[in-house]
Design goal:
The protein is elongated, with a radius of gyration of 40 Å. It is built from nine helices and two strands; from the N terminus they run E-E-H-H-H-H-H-H-H-H-H. The chain has a two-stranded antiparallel sheet. Helix 3 packs antiparallel against helix 4 and helix 8 packs antiparallel against helix 9. The chain is mainly α. The protein has two domains: about 140 residues, no CATH class; about 50 residues. The longest helix is centred in the C-terminal third of the chain and has 38 residues.
Length: about 230
């Protein structure tokens, strides 16, 4: 008889190894399991400490992401909502401000206008930061940190916008000015054509008044020239 391709004489070794592994696992469980009520309390405190450490680590990571201006994922937003409602409210405000800024960028007609919108937004946030009183006058460092988060979010949003097809499709101002100039020239040419046509019509009318008998043939001939 063979087991796993081995002679029957090795079955005992296999069973013995399995038993030793089972005993080792049980010893680890016995070591972890509390033996007294005091051990149970210590164990619960240890688990709580571990939970708090994990929570603190996750929150620090999310805060670091917000400070760098990166957009939070849905899971990260849900985590904040559950574990840090105050920070969650800040994240919601930043996300709303990002969307408003993105829409302002989309409404721009040229790349230069988009850059001016970005510059103006940053200047407004800088002015807001300068208006915050220093800590001696009762301000909290969290106020400046929140403004800094918003600033970095706007920078990140603009960087993402610049990579988009929306920005790529925007003309430069000199291109737009050239297009406007061409439109003006086309409009001017149409106006001149209309004036020329009206002048020829007046000539026809005068000629018709002087030569009634030749009216049909002449008017058709001139109209053919004008529209042809």
């Amino acid at each position: 008889m063979t087991v796993f391709g081995s002679p029957s004489g090795r079955i005992f070794d296999y069973v013995k190894t399995t038993q030793l592994e089972a005993k080792w696992q049980q010893r680890k469980l016995d070591f972890i399991a509390p033996k007294t009520e005091n051990d149970k309390i210590k164990g619960n405190n240890l688990f709580k400490q571990n939970d708090e450490m994990i929570k603190a680590t996750n929150l620090n990571r999310i805060v670091g992401k917000m400070k760098s201006g990166k957009r939070l994922t849905r899971d990260e937003m849900e985590y904040l909502k559950k574990h840090d409602p105050v920070l969650y409210e800040k994240a919601v405000k930043i996300e709303k401000e990002r969307e408003e800024h993105r829409q302002a960028l989309r409404n721009c007609k040229t790349k230069e206008e988009a850059r001016r919108v970005q510059t103006t937004k940053c200047h407004l946030l800088q002015a807001e930061a300068k208006a915050v009183p220093d800590s001696k006058n009762g301000s909290s460092p969290m106020e400046l940190e929140f403004i800094s988060m918003r600033m970095m979010a706007m920078v990140d949003e603009f960087a993402e916008f610049v990579k988009s097809s929306e920005y790529d499709d925007m003309p430069n101002e000199h291109e737009l000015n050239g297009e406007e100039e061409n439109k003006h020239q086309r409009k001017f040419k149409r106006s001149k054509s209309i004036q020329s046509y009206e002048m020829q019509i007046r000539k026809i009318s005068r000629f018709q008044n002087d030569n009634h008998s030749e009216k049909p043939s002449l008017s058709k001939s001139i109209e053919a020239n004008v529209y042809g």
